[in-house]
Design a protein that fits this description.
Structural class: mainly beta
Number of domains: 2
CATH superfamily of the largest domain: TonB-dependent receptor, beta-barrel domain
Number of helices: 4
Helix content: under 10%
Radius of gyration: 26 Å
CATH class of the largest domain: Mainly Beta
Length: 642
């Protein structure tokens, strides 16, 4: 078996300008301040200890992320119970407590949102870039319909980058591995003036050889070739005001590991299909091993429709004429301003992002052009949020705000159905989808007594979507339509067309309580309504009916739980029981006459679950998230900046 072996060949930490060396650990991304026992999070859009937040969540600080070797957002799924990542060809979709999707089309909204520095990433492919120089990650479980709103019926993954510092600091980490693997990560941070600081950070992942061998041309597959960079400027004109401008960009030119070729028809059936593909359907010639679920790659009784089958069952070898590869790139800017008025803090966050996804897939991993797909997405996204958070030490705390988001998505998905160059087809599903979302929200907590607080929240949302598309087709052998729509040759005709529009509105709400009979133990409970807007089927559509529309889904969630910090912070025990009731849940399902599954609605669904998480730290040390001490004053903590 081919294995990856890594060596951290260099971990360099050095002072800038001052010449003072200050080593914090064996990794990049460490500033002068070490990660403390107390992990402060903003899961309720105000600073609190993770153990004071009355929802089920996991949080990881910078040092813990480094120790766990979290290099992509999806890696966190291996560290958090009831969190998984399902990947639809280089599009990572999170699933929390069984709530998630696995899609290929690119226009489907995940029920688990991903936010980067408080900015909602509207498309899953945007989350596939490298994760580096991160302050913390927060994974919120269950619907977050009041404070976060957009598409959070399952939860939210929140990522926060490290900010510039007024202290000179720098760090770099270099990793070597077999297959010519060479990764780097680093940062430079320091003051430009008494009120302005800057931070430059970067990460690269590269290799000269892939872990899979391609017998077709002797090449290898699975070589990463990724890079990402980030430049920030922090302006603090006074103790009450701060402004942060972040500029960032990334690229990915990797080859991906191949699929395993699995035959589905008999050799005689493949010959019949090749002789007369119009009148011979593969469904008439399915092989026995495929039907009973015992088929393997090297089974000679099962071949694909070209008559090909793999000579072995080695998952690290393939015979592909079109190796899976990506050519993704993106850039953007986030501007965040904050001012402390004393009684409350005003925060405004605006962003602009572009992302281009160009992915090539050999769907059956064979040396013949038979079901190969090119995926192309171009995304433009604008977001703005403004909110006011109370700072009062009194019994009432609150967050109120407004939100706006707009994204334009252009898609060209092309399938090569090229079993024979004389009659094979190239089919492309092409569309533009535009989304505008507006919301106003508020959440308040009132301290009835020193040990009991009540919580209530509302969010009103409106969303409008338009969808204009078609499925043109060409004869195989014409110019290869790989990339944006402008490169498509003139089609012979359209198999389907669509011009659709829809709007959704919703009032989400939350009521709950927290009870702290002892300083180290908190009980909580809430009932919450979440909302996920409707949309359109963006997969391959071979008829107008397959350009279908699906309705919004709603969830009512009931949850009670306990959070406890024991043994002087060395033991953390958290547990929760929950029940979800869905109306019109959005699912992928087979439909009569449809070539591929489409997005549609079921009637209802219910989930009942329990989870518990125990962290034991026999020796107290800094840098372990999850076993956090409670912030002594919850009201005081609300005045801190994370």
């Amino acid at each position: 078996m081919r294995r990856m072996h890594t060596i951290s060949a260099a971990a360099l930490l050095f002072g800038l300008w001052t010449g003072a060396a200050h080593a914090q650990g064996a990794g990049a991304g460490h500033d002068d301040a070490q990660e403390s026992d107390e992990l402060v999070v903003t899961a309720q859009k105000r600073a609190q200890s993770v153990q004071d937040v009355p929802i089920t969540m996991s949080a990881f600080g910078a040092e813990t992320l480094r120790e766990l070797r979290i290099t992509e957002a999806s890696d966190i799924a291996y560290q958090v119970p009831q969190v998984q990542v399902q990947t639809g060809f280089n599009q990572p979709y999170f699933a929390v407590r069984g709530i998630g999707i696995n899609e290929f089309s690119g226009n489907t909204d995940s029920p688990v949102a991903v936010h980067f520095n408080e900015v909602y990433l509207s498309r899953a492919t945007q989350t596939s870039v490298a994760l580096f120089d991160v302050e913390r990650m927060e994974i919120l479980k269950g619907p977050q319909g009041t404070l976060f709103g957009r598409n959070t019926t399952g939860g939210s993954v929140n990522i926060f980058a490290r900010a510039p510092t007024q202290d000179n600091s720098a760090g770099a980490n270099i990793t070597f591995a077999n297959y010519g693997r060479f990764d780097t990560e680093g940062f430079l941070s320091g003051p430009l003036s008494d009120t302005v600081a800057a931070r430059l950070s970067w990460a690269t992942q590269q290799a000269t050889e892939g872990v899979a061998e391609n017998r077709y041309d002797g090449s290898t597959m699975g070589e990463p070739d990724r890079f990402a960079g980030r430049l920030q400027f922090q302006w603090d004109p006074s103790a009450a005001t701060s402004v942060n401008l972040m500029l960032f960009g990334s690229g990915d030119r990797s080859t991906l590991q191949p699929f395993e070729n699995i035959g589905v028809v008999t050799p005689a059936g493949a010959a019949a299909i090749q002789a007369d593909p119009i009148n011979n359907s593969p469904l008439s010639y399915l092989c026995a091993a495929y039907l009973n679920g015992t088929v393997t790659a090297a089974d000679p009784t099962c071949v694909n429709t070209t008559g090909y089958s793999e000579p072995d069952n080695d998952p690290f070898t393939t015979n592909s004429d079109a190796p899976n590869r990506v050519d993704n790139s993106g850039y953007g800017a986030i501007l965040r301003g904050e001012h402390d008025f004393g009684f409350a803090t005003f925060t405004a966050v605006g962003s602009y992002m572009e992302f281009e996804r160009v992915n090539r897939e050999d769907s059956i991993a064979s040396p013949y052009r038979d079901i190969e797909i090119n995926w192309y997405n171009f995304i433009q996204e604008y977001t703005f949020e403004a909110r006011l958070s109370s700072n009062s030490a009194g019994p009432l705390s609150y967050v109120v705000g407004v939100y706006y988001q707009k994204d334009d998505l252009g898609v060209t998905n092309t399938a090569f159905l090229d079993q024979n160059p004389s009659y094979g087809l190239i089919v492309s599903t092409v569309y533009d989808q535009e989304t505008e979302a507006y919301a106003a929200f508020g959440q308040a907590e009132y301290e009835v007594s020193p040990w009991l607080s009540l919580i209530g929240g509302l969010r009103y949302s409106e969303e409008e979507k338009t969808f204009v598309g078609a499925t043109p087709f060409q004869i195989a052998g014409m110019a290869e339509p790989y990339g944006p729509r402008a490169t498509l040759p003139t089609p012979l005709g359209n198999l389907a067309t669509a011009d659709l529009a829809r709007s959704d509105s919703n009032l989400s709400w939350k009521v709950g309580f927290t009870a702290r009979p002892w300083d180290s133990v908190m009980f909580y409970g809430h009932v919450e309504r979440g909302f996920k807007s409707g949309g359109f089927n963006g997969g391959f559509a071979f008829s107008n009916a397959e350009f279908s529309e699906f309705e919004a889904e709603e969830i009512t969630a009931y949850e009670v739980g306990v959070k406890s910090t024991l043994a002087d912070g060395r033991v953390v025990l958290n547990a929760a029981i929950f029940r979800y009731e869905y109306e019109n849940p959005q699912v992928n399902a087979d439909a009569p006459g449809a070539v591929a599954p489409i997005s549609t609605n079921a009637d209802t669904s219910e989930y009942l679950g329990f989870e518990a998480e125990l962290t034991w730290r026999p020796i107290s040390r800094n840098g372990v998230s999850g076993a956090s001490h409670r912030v002594p004053s919850r009201r005081g903590a609300a005045r801190q900046r994370p």
